Description:
The protein is globular and about 80 Å long. The protein is α/β, with parallel strands linked by helices and 456 residues long. It has 15 helices and 18 strands. The longest helix has 27 residues, at 56-82. The protein has a seven-stranded mixed beta sheet.
Amino acid sequence: MNHYELLVSNQRSFFKSEKTLPYSFRKEQLEKLKKMLKIHEKEIYHALKEDLNKSSYETLTTEIGFLYSEIDVTLKNLKEWMKEKKVDTPITHKGSKSYIVPEPYGVTLTIAPWNYPLQLAVAPVIGALAAGNTAIIKPSEFTPATSGLLAKMMGSTFDQNYLAVVEGAKETTQRLLELRFDYIFFTGSTNVGKIIMRQASEHLTPVTLELGGKSPAIVDKDANIDLAAKRIVWGKFTNAGQTCVAPDYLYVHEKVKQKLMKSMKKQIKSFYGKNPINNEEYGHIINRDHFDRLSGLLADGETIHGGKTDSEVRSIEPTIIDGIAWEDAIMQEEIFGPLLPVLTFSKLEEAISVLKDKEKPLSLYYFGENNKSQQRILDSLSFGGGCINDTLYHLANPYLPFGGVGNSGMGSYHGHNSFDTFSHKKSILKQTTLFDIPLRYPGSKLAHNITKRIMK
Ligand code: NAD
């Protein structure tokens, strides 16, 4: 048995021991997880600064604080979520009761990306543990400081046979994927998502795929332009644009474009100063490959704001690019960096019909005051989730399921949805033995006639 086989086998034995099942055990582990994060807060700030130049404010709000809130909501509701749920029983089943029992799958694998390397590795696991599973986390190889810290913290807090971190690159994931898991939760790119699903199918392991895509921010002619500018600039340039739900591109009504551009430039200066590259609060690009890829995309259109790059620290200014056509290279792939291409429309219906032909994005943001237009967007376009008159904020509400659709993923999590994702719903019918209605059995003409009348 190699190291990975042994780990999975030990976790399976741990799961079979039924230790993970009681409410008291699950609660204790979640409390331990929160305490672990609290004790190591300082190291977490340092690690994220080292990996992504994440400011302490961003680390607090988008990584640590996010996890505290998920743990708190889970602890507050877990007892209720674990209860079996009674459902109706049809008259044909007289004498019996029906209910749904949530049960853990068993040994779970969470594979995480680099852009929110702590949050995206730990948030799914909150659901996995709450639902009574064991968990293995494979964090990203591109954030060695955070992934190393995660392994160290988890290693000294939890029994490996219950919760373990396996560090490594894609080869490590490949080795893990050869083994049988009971649930796989993957966050990453669409292409790798396909590989994960293909391999999971060998063992018929169910998957959640949290993927990416090109999420539009649509600004209509009646939008509150200054607020739209502020919220789009915040949503796009947080973490230097390396956010799965960041507005990928701007799709603005031609009548308000100039006003919006002016306001956005002002906002960028007010958030990041005149020289964002030297701003300690502004994120860096994860690695040289991504820096080069993004620098290449600057060739399209006309840069009307930003555009400066510094290869030494891998930083790219918040950049707005005008004069972009749908055929340009920047519109063919998820940007995942601080470049915002601008496209225009003259009628909302025209915009809708263009967007209908695109892959379903992870998020969509619509800015406009008219209720009918807002509704029209929701009725006509399919996307994972999003906001009206805001960006990113839907993700921070633990009462909303978070996930993609089509090319942007399948399944969802956060709050109760995380618990549901990691639980199989076992359907139970409990029959009485006090009497036995003969209707379903063969051989009786009367039974046949009555059943025919009921099941019409
Ligand atoms: P990625 O798909 O390259 O890597 C994700 C994970 O998969 C990493 O742990 C990596 O080691 C592993 N991996 C990579 N190639 C593999 C392979 N061939 N076989 C097995 N495992 C492999 O993604 P990334 O670059 O780390 O992250 C960026 C992508 O993630 C973007 O597309 C972004 O939109 C998406 N994302 C989605 C969400 C979401 O919640 N939907 C959140 C963050 C990021």
